[in-house]
Amino acid sequence: MRRWVAGAAVVGVVAAAGGGFALARDGGPEVAREDVRIDVVDGPGDDEKVTLDASFYRPEGLGPVPAVLLAHGFGGSKRSQAAAARELAGHGYAVLTWSARGFGESGGQIALNSPDYEVKDTRQLIDWLARRPEVRKDAPGDPRVGMAGPSYGGAISLLTAAYDSRVDALVPSITWHDLSDALLPDGVFKKLWAGLFFTGESDGSTACGRFLPELCEMYQRIAQTGQYKESDVEVLRASSPATAPPVKAPTLLIQGQSDSLFPLDHADANARRAQGPVSVVWYQGGHDGGEDESPLLTELTADWFDQHLKGLDTGASEPFTVTRATGVDSTSGRTWLRAASAKTYPGLASQPRELPLEGAEQAVQNPAGGFPAAVSALPGLGALNALGSLGSLGVDLDMPGQSAAFTTAPLGASLRVTGAPRLTVKTDRAAVLFAKVYDVSPDGKASLARRLAAPVRFTEAGEREVVLPALDYEFARGHRIRVVLGTTDQGFAGPSAPATYRISAASALSVPTVPGLATPAGRPPAWVWILPLAALVVSGGLLVRRRPKGSFEPSLEGVPLQIDGLTKTYSNGFKAVEDLSFRVEKGQVLGLLGPNGAGKTTTLRMLMGLIHPDGGEIRIFGHKVTPGAAVLGRLGSFVEGPGFLPHLSGRDNLVLYWRATGRPMAESRLDEALEVAALSEEALARPVRTYSQGMRARLAIAQAMLGLPDLLVLDEPTNGLDPPQIRQMREVLVDYAAAGRTVIVSSHLLSEVEQTCTHVVVMTRGRKVADGPVEEIVGGRGLENVFLEIIGGGV
Question: How much is the pTM?
Answer without folding.
Answer: 0.67
